[in-house]
């Protein structure tokens, strides 16, 4: 089904793995097209509740593929823009998934790999992982990933890390908000599974609505979003899952969305 991705399903959880370990899971146009196709199918899957995004081998993703970059060196301005739009569409499709997305980071997440981590809702990294928005070292800029990275790390860290292209460790990634948990390498999968269980304990519609609400509220004043937030909570309280969750709490029973 896929040439560059490995996909494994376990009930409501899908494990999506970049599967080019021989080139450190580097991006090329084929990887981008397959991620786009996968995201479109995932968004339409009502049974999907959690995605774990990882990379095969010792590295999550080292960024852009050297052979792909060699081809791009000969692209015209128009060809470069078309290529960039395809990458942006893929990132937007992943970002908009109405389910929890957990990034499992080992080895390194560089360039577009770090951008892919920024699209995840939760990122768990091994303590030895290295990150970097390294585009400036190649004479380019992290433009396509910037709308997803800046809400995570903020303007100050972006000015340092985008401009210098310097690499940084998992502890720094955690400090600036790119990573949510840093664990020893042998505890990585257990930490990921802890987050899987947390997502599965939350109502699917609540996860989807909260994920959609966050960018609508971010940067706005309470007055500006008063109507939006009131309408959002009212709709969720009146929904089937909202009603079930409240009744389950009062009746001291598990809600209907918990895995049996």
How do the helices and strands line up, and which of them pair or pack?
Blueprint: E1 5-10, E2 13-18, H1 29-43, E3 50-55, H2 66-72, H3 77-95, E4 100-105, E5 108-110, H4 112-119, E6 122-126, E7 130-132, H5 146-164, E8 167-169, H6 170-175, E9 181-183, H7 188-200, H8 204-217, H9 226-238, H10 240-251
Parallel strand pairs: 2-3, 3-4, 4-6, 5-7, 6-9
Antiparallel strand pairs: 1-2, 7-8
Helix pairs in contact: 1-3, 4-5
Q: Kindly state the number of beta strands.
A: 9
Mind telling me the CATH superfamily name of the largest domain?
2-enoyl-CoA Hydratase, Chain A, domain 1
Shape: globular
User: Roughly how many Å apart are the termini?
Assistant: 30 Å
What is the helix fraction of residues, given as a range?
40-55%
Beta-strand residue fraction: 15-25%
Cα-atom radius of gyration: 19 Å
Lateral strand order in the biggest sheet: 1-2-3-4-6-9
Supply the CATH class of the largest domain: Alpha Beta
Secondary-structure element order, as H and E?
Answer: EEHEHHEEHEEHEHEHHHH
Structure description:
The chain has 260 residues and is α/β, with parallel strands linked by helices. The protein has two domains: 5-200, Alpha-Beta Complex (2-enoyl-CoA Hydratase, Chain A, domain 1), CATH 3.90.226.10; 204-251. The protein is built from ten helices and nine strands. The chain has helices at residues 29-43, 66-72, 77-95, 112-119, 146-164, 170-175, 188-200, 204-217, 226-238, 240-251; strands at 5-10, 13-18, 50-55, 100-105, 108-110, 122-126, 130-132, 167-169, 181-183. It has a six-stranded mixed β-sheet, with helices on both faces. A three-stranded mixed β-sheet has the order 5-7-8. A hairpin with a 2-residue loop joins strand 1 and strand 2 (13-18). The chain is globular, with a radius of gyration of 19 Å. 35% of the residues are buried.
